[in-house]
Amino acid sequence: MYRPSDYPELNGKEPDWVQSEREMFKEHRDKNADGKLDKDEMRDWIMPVGFDHADAEAKHLVASADDDKDGKLSAEEIIAHYDTFVGSQATDYGEQLQKHDPSDL
User: Phi and psi dihedrals of 77, rounded to 5?
Assistant: First the structure.
């Protein structure tokens, strides 16, 4: 959430990311141009047609944790990047990891 008080160094000017989000909202998300997101617009933003969330998250996890860049994740790489997997959106794997002590893995 944008709060001007979080950016005192900008003297009231909005950060670039806020303007970018406003443009994305207007040009891509608010399809009926009413200034608000209805349930269909929200669904299309969260679950775009043709976008494979699991594939994208899997690629993200490999790219983030594949230290030796062999295209595969070893147990050591997964453990070394524990926090990345705890926050994973691909499955509830992150939720399951939070229930265990990492030393037990």
Answer: -65, -40
Give the pLDDT of the chain (105 residues) as one tens digit per residue.
888 888 899 998 999 999 999 999 999 999 999 999 999 999 988 888 888 878 888 898 999 999 999 999 999 999 999 888 877 765 454 455 555 555 554
Query: In the chain, count of helices (H) and strands (E)?
Result: 6, 0
Helix segments in the chain, DSSP class H: 16-24, 39-46, 53-65, 75-80, 82-86, 93-98
How far is Cα 25 from Cα 41, in angstroms, rounded to an integer? 10
Q: From its phi and psi, is residue 27 left (phi > 0), alpha (psi between -120 and 50) or beta?
A: alpha
φ/ψ of 102, rounded to 5, equals -55, -25
- pTM given for the model: 0.47
